[in-house]
Write a structure and sequence with these properties.
Length: 502
């Protein structure tokens, strides 16, 4: 269950009881950067996925839109690229693309959070007062709940936060493992005022659609075959959503962890990125959650390359040249002729994670076809993101995969392959893929955002100008690319507040 929902409820109760009284917190001085690493030294730093200028980051916390400013807080170690001395890092933005990194909002400073200011959420209280509720790990290594509020409500950047003198507000009660995360011991009721036809229950990993008085009713077609409902079937953790009141949309953030060694992270001087913010919507059928990168990303697009109505013969590979393939946004839509002649799926093939690495044995009339991203010219390094269409009774099933087995010639990288099944309405006769390629991350949105897979990769050859992008079809019959649009992406600006005339 989303902690944010619980915190919202809990906080109202707490504040009625306690009132809000606060005292000054102690900020550790913010270390200034000596010099930023160059691109050549840092082939894995992302250009438009948010990451702090240095050091460790994990979960997004308390994303909020307040007085014209987007705030992103995150679990952050201001001192090193490892998970230690956890603070609340804080960055602000006017467009969700470019960011100003401020000093941490909360640092461990008190007996109740001396072992870290861990995850939490922000709630806007009556009177437009934002409040942070966070888990502190205290001197005795117990998890306790704490409150902080802004020092100066007129400051739209909310630079300084003060911890409540009533902290800790909650301590583990008898019978609860004090080192365990506090999870509900009760069930959340859906709000009784819910008047919409459907509502969505969103946890940090899964989503479900519910209807008033019919909890957890979902499209059973999707459950057939053991599908679950993850936001993302790759690296995508500890998600948080917030409502963007300026643009009337719900936005999803999530941490995308590193997939190589801690030693490499220490050498690079940083670890952890955020997924690009996604709008979350209901599909037209009302049965399915759909995710799509927020539109603001498009301002970074440059140098468009486009193809229309192009046949991709079975067994062919075709380079998409003319863009920076290490820093790109790619949208491709495939037409699927003769779907009725594709093979029936082997009834034993139920697990995408077992199927996706099958390589040549997957070859058939319906693919595999898709993209080879962050590929070296000789294709020894490549991340294949592909579809394979199967028949299942009178329906069609699409296997979507992201294959990391050849993503890097380096040692110590996680090569796990990811996959998911997508139900295809035979009348659609097409399937689309959008890939956000950004040096060491590829975020994939299949079937107009109905299935997402995010991968971290560390190519050694396919970096900077040596990275290439291909479309391929390893199936035995042609597929038609109805359209392919690819853009080089400009770099988002992420600057420390000192550089921003503060
Ligand atoms: C509070 O913030 C406003 C707006 O940034 C600023 O003008 C004012 O000086 C601040 N007040 C204090 C006491 O710092
Ligand atoms: C598939 O559809 C095409 C066009 O409608 C038809 O000509 C063909 O006979 C069908 N094949 C099968 C195996 O049903
Ligand atoms: C496509 O087929 C070729 C030839 O069998 C093979 O070398 C290559 O690895 C296949 N590509 C993918 C992504 O499976």
């Amino acid at each position: 269950m989303d902690k944010g929902v619980l915190w919202g409820v809990g906080l109202c109760i707490l504040l009625v009881g306690y009132g809000v009284e606060v005292k000054a917190s102690h900020h550790h001085p913010y270390r200034k950067l000596q010099s930023l690493p160059t691109d050549q030294e840092q082939p894995y730093r992302t250009a438009y996925h948010f990451q702090p200028l240095e050091n460790w980051m994990n979960d997004p916390n308390g994303p909020v839109y307040y007085k014209g400013v987007y705030h992103l807080f995150y679990q952050y170690n201001p001192h090193a690229a490892v998970a230690f001395y956890i603070s609340w890092g804080h960055s602000v933005s006017y467009n969700l693309v470019d960011w100003i990194q401020l000093e941490p909002a909360l640092n461990p400073s008190e007996p109740y959070d001396s072992n870290g200011c861990w995850s939490g959420s922000i709630t806007i209280l009556p009177g437009e007062i934002p409040a942070i509720l966070y888990t502190g790990i205290n001197l005795e290594n117990r998890q306790v709940q704490n409150l902080a509020v802004p020092k100066n409500l007129s400051d739209p950047l909310l630079r300084e936060w003060v911890k409540s003198s009533y902290n800790p507000l909650m301590t583990p009660v008898n019978g609860i493992d004090p080192e365990q995360d506090l999870t509900p011991l009760f069930e959340m009721n859906l709000p009784s005022t819910c008047s919409r036809q459907v509502s969505m229950v969103m946890t940090t990993t899964f989503w479900e659609i519910t209807r008033p008085k019919q909890n957890f009713l979902v499209d059973t077609d999707f459950l057939d075959g053991g599908f679950d409902f993850r936001y993302d079937y790759g690296k995508f953790y500890a998600s948080k959503t917030f409502f963007d009141s300026a643009k009337k949309r719900r936005i999803l953030w999530a941490w995308v962890s590193e997939s190589d060694t801690t030693l490499n992270a220490i050498r690079r001087g940083w670890a952890g990125i955020q997924a690009f913010p996604r709008s979350v919507l209901l599909s037209r059928t009302g049965q399915q959650l759909v995710q799509w990168p927020i539109k603001e990303l498009e301002k970074l697009r440059a140098n468009k390359v486009a193809f229309n109505d192009m046949e991709l013969k079975g067994g062919s590979v075709f380079e998409v040249s003319g863009i920076t393939a290490s820093q790109a946004d790619v949208e491709v839509s495939f037409d699927l002729p003769n779907l009725n002649e594709t093979e029936f799926i082997d009834p034993n093939w139920v697990d995408p994670l077992v199927l996706c690495p099958k390589g040549a044995s997957l070859t058939g009339k319906g693919g595999p076809f898709g993209l080879l991203a962050l590929a070296s010219r000789d294709l020894t390094e490549q991340t294949a993101v592909f579809f394979r269409i199967f028949r299942k009774q009178d329906k069609y099933l699409v296997l979507m995969c992201s294959d990391q087995s050849r993503s890097s010639l380096g040692d110590g990288t996680d090569r796990t392959t990811y996959g998911v099944f997508i139900n295809l309405d035979p009348r659609e006769r097409k399937i689309s893929l959008r890939s956000l390629i950004d040096h060491s991350v590829i975020e994939n949105f299949g079937a107009d955002g109905r299935a997402c897979i995010t991968a971290r990769v560390y190519p050694t050859l396919a970096i900077h100008k040596e990275a290439h992008l291909y479309v391929f079809n390893n199936g035995t019959q042609s597929v038609r690319i109805s359209s392919l649009n690819a853009w080089s992406m400009k770099r988002a600006q992420i600057v420390p507040s000192e550089k921003n005339g503060k």
